[in-house]
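sanity check this record:
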Amino acid sequence: MLIRISEIEVYPQYLEEYLSASKDVGATSVKEEPGVICIYPMQMKRDSTQIRILEIYASPEAYQHHIKTVHFQKYKTGTLHMVKSLDLVDMYALDPASMPQIFLKMNCN
């Protein structure tokens, strides 16, 4: 598995446009790519220009496939001028065995 948190700061004048693009690429990626487990964009309450995206891929190969897709390339090139800063933070799962239960709970409500 590959787990990452993308820490993004967006220029304020592009915020709404960026939020829309990040939602679209996340939804399309999860729907169309079997190796994309989760792309979950979030916006900080205390600073709306700060975006965090939780990304979970089945494997490093799934991630490599993802960044070559048409929908990701459209997102990346279309939002490049909107992004003030980007930091890709790779993470280790401390309890990967609990992940299936977390996602199952989401379907109960």
Remarks:
- The longest helix spans residues 15-32.
